[in-house]
Amino acid sequence: MPKNKPKVKEHRIERDWCKGCGICVHFCPKNVLDLDNEKKVMAARPEDCICCRLCQFRCPDLAIEVVCED
Amino acid sequence: MSRQIEFVQGNVACAKAALYAGLEFFAGYPITPSSEIAEYMAKRLPQNGGKFLQMEDEIASICAIIGASLTGRKVMTATSGPGFSLMQEALGYAVMTEIPCVIANVQRGGPSTGLPTHVSQGDVNQARYGTHGEHAIVALTASTAQDIFTLTVDAFNFAETYRTPVILLLDETTGHLRERLEVPAADGIATVGRLKTTVSQGVDYHPYLPREDGRLPMSDFGGAHRYNVTGLFHDMWGFPTENPKIVYGLIRHLVDKIDHNADQMARWKEYYIDDAPTLLVSYGAAARSALHLVENRRKRGEKLGLLELQTLWPFPHELVREKCCHAQSIVVVEMNMGQVLQQVKLAVRQPEKAFLANRIDGELITPTDIQNIIHVIQGKGV
Amino acid sequence: MSVRDYLRERFFPHMWCPGCGHGTVLNALLRAVEKLGLDKSEIVMVSGIGCSARISGYVDFHTMHTIHGRALAFATGIKMSRPELSVLVPMGDGDALAIGGNHFLHAARRNIDLTAIIMNNRIYGMTGGQFSPLTGYGCFGTTAPYGSVDHSFDLVELSTSAGASFVARSTTYHVIELAGIIEKAIAHRGFSVVEVMSQCPTNFGRRNQAGSAVEMLETYRKQTVPLDSEAAQTSPEKIRRGVFVEKKRPEYTEAYEEMIRSATGES
């Protein structure tokens, strides 16, 4: 049996910290994120998230945390 | 107990005194006429478990000692004019961040490379005004190996007490002159240790909140308390601020903690001043010639006196005013264009009675030079 | 510990521009520290002046924000006095290699155990976009309006020849690699240099048609190759990333302790 793919619980976003540079949106391999109409990041398609955390690691504002199940 | 008498250069007296005062860390860069201090430290400090660093330049030297001081060490560097010029920005940083350190400047002729092996006292104003921005500073000087020892210990004590850089303004003559030094017994001169915070770990510590007496207890950097240090204007936690009230308060604190304690830091010597119509005011190597002249003339019945200043900054204006109040004429003997004369004129009631006896040619001013100038002042011709 | 436990959160959002790479360096640095399991109180961060230097205000370590170019000299005093502390020295390219170039060379020569993290954005950002020693020939800055005629240092070669015993390069695109490299650099005993190519969209990007932060990261992705990869062989014009030097050399504070033992006759 292959190991279960990690599942996302939540994208914790500090809206006040996000400066809307769009790095996380552009480089998300599964196109999970969008900028909202205030140019703040939002998890538009969280069900597609594979918990790679690249958005969290690349975020220059330290504004996203990807919380996964275990 | 046998007394410890030695025959040493002023630079070595300075180095010995620094160790006596508890020096643990020295960083420097070779420069004439101060290098003997570094050489002495290179040999002795490691023997005492201390650290000596020869850095890549004077800027690195002063930065390294500031870093080491913050971690709880007593620190020092030594240099001469060109190196002292390079140190000015970091000196301002030590003023702003209130990190104790001692900087010996063994003065030589300047500006620029000037006269590396000749005497001058041209850096008095640089010690006070060399770094940018409003601030106060402490600068001490001395004329004999014995006094260099005492004043060096004072320098460390003031640095710790007031959390400030202290400048020791020596000069080529006193630095290189070999003479008798009686090393005080271990408890002969009181030494001031670092005032450390009593705030325990885990409790909010304010590195920049002065106590009622104006002193700021320190916490060894890297130790129990994590805090920030910056050369920007900062609040009581050490974090940057542009709040005008806090900026004003910090400047006032930096200036007042020195100026309000000028009396405590005033060091001087006086010879025959009570009945002297002509009073010499001098310091450092120039004071040796002034004293020689005074004693010589006294033997011949001429009423000459000498006020030898050892604290140059904060300048002891009240002391000078008081000591000069009976003199008909005041002759400031120094080896520059009148840097202390300027302060004496500000201090005394009748500035028109203050005159300059100087040499600026790299040669030590002699008793005869001073005598000749006194004759001119007295209208007796040369 | 989570990365956020190392932050002084009350100062967030930080002062860097949108898309500035320096925040990503902070992000990677904290992950490295977390991975190493270091306690906040074991770490000293000493910085100089510039956008990069402001990083010290945001981390809950022992932090010292000093003067332009001299961070390594202050850090040398701290490390010599307290060798048991981990001392991190983040710098900008101008801070480390122009005004601070001499201190950089000598810290590397001594091989003192400091971790120098050079956030190379190829520009003086805080003062508004003047060219730096890493801007590069033909590139533009406010003080190079016709294109710079100054050539760049190669930071990796410079550090290596000066004697650094750990030398590496990464970018703010390669964030997993970057955190791993910083982790190795901190753990290394000796002078460690990590060059991080870090985008400044505001002041470098705008003047050099490098595009947005996203486009600058795309450039890092396309124009760099791992040191030991086939691509590094076939595309020599691309910038190499990875650990270039990792060797044992006597470390300065240890050598000094040895000297003290010999001076006091203990050895």
Describe the structure.
The complex is a heterotrimer of chains A (70), B (382) and C (267). Chain A is α+β, with helices and mostly antiparallel strands and 70 residues long. Helices cover 14% and strands 24% of the residues of chain A. The radius of gyration of chain A is 12 Å and the shape is globular. Chain B has two domains: 1-265, Thiamin diphosphate (ThDP)-binding fold, Pyr/PP domains (Rossmann fold, 3-Layer(aba) Sandwich); 268-377, Rossmann fold, CATH 3.40.50.920. Chain C has one domain (3-263): Rossmann fold. Chain C is built from eleven helices and ten strands. Chain C has helices at residues 22-36, 55-58, 71-81, 93-97, 101-110, 155-162, 175-187, 201-205, 213-223, 230-234, 252-263, and strands spanning 43-47, 62-65, 86-92, 115-120, 123-124, 130-131, 166-171, 192-197, 224-226, 239-246. Chain C is globular. Classes of the chains: A alpha+beta (70), B alpha/beta (382), C alpha/beta (267). The interface between B and C is large, with 40 and 35 residues. Strand 9 (228-230) of chain B pairs parallel with strand 2 of chain C.
Write a brief structural summary.
Chain A is an alpha+beta fold. In chain A, 14% of the residues lie in helices and 24% in strands.
CATH topology of chain A: Alpha-Beta Plaits
Shape type of chain B: globular
Return the domain count of chain B.
Answer: 2
Instruction: Please provide the ordered H/E string of secondary-structure elements of chain B.
Output: EHEHEHEHHEHEHEHEEHHEEHEEHEHEH
How far apart lie the N and C ends of chain B? 52 Å
Q: What is the average per-residue confidence, as pLDDT of chain B, rounded to a whole number? A: 97
Strand runs of chain A, count: 4
